[in-house]
Structure formats: structure tokens, C-alpha cells
Amino acid sequence: MEPQKNLCAMIPLSLHAKVREEQERSGQSLSMYMTQLLTNYYEKGEKSMDFTKTLAFQVSEELYNRIKDHLEREKQRTGKKLSQKDFVIGLIERELEEAERRETAPQEGEDHADME
Fold first, then answer.
1. What's the predicted TM-score (pTM) here?
2. Contact status, residue 40 vs residue 32, Cβ threshold 8 Å
């Protein structure tokens, strides 16, 4: 384990409350939380305090190959490489946005006449 050193700094009370709230929500000790936060900022270039969770699943070899082929075609078409992760996250986000849009849209057949 790498040697450790204490870091102490005065911060606004409101910021302290936000940090502690997020730290408690993360289920990590304050030391672990701050280490992750600073590591994400300096080493990974993540400029937000959002933490990630792993979503893992297996797919058939056929589907896997279709995805790989699609990503290669997109790379040829756009000149930019799209990672599997970005592709799947994009699909999930698009479907969730569509589902949320449907949930908030007026239902078909609803009567929107003025009530008198």
C-alpha cells in the first residue's frame, strides 16, 4: 500500500455538507471517498463528482459479432471509433429518454376538452 498523508483544508460549510452527503450515499469512508474523488479528477480527467456503477451482461456470439461489425462500419463511415461502451450507453439512454417521453406525454384518447 502506498504511504499516506493527511490533507486538511478549510472549505465552506455548504460545500462540506454536500461532500459529506455524497460520501455517505457512496457507502465509503471519508478517506476512501476523497481518494476516489481526487483520483478521478487528476488521473482520469473526470471533472464531476458522479461515480459509476458497473453494468455487465453476456450476449450471444452472433450478437457480439453484429455489434463489432456495426462499430467497424460506423468507424469507416464517420472516421471516428465508437467504443462498445459508448454504443451501448447511447442505446440505453435513447430508450430511457423515449420511455420517459411516453410516460409524460398525454395518453392517446384522453379528453382535453375544457371542463365546465
1. 0.50
2. no
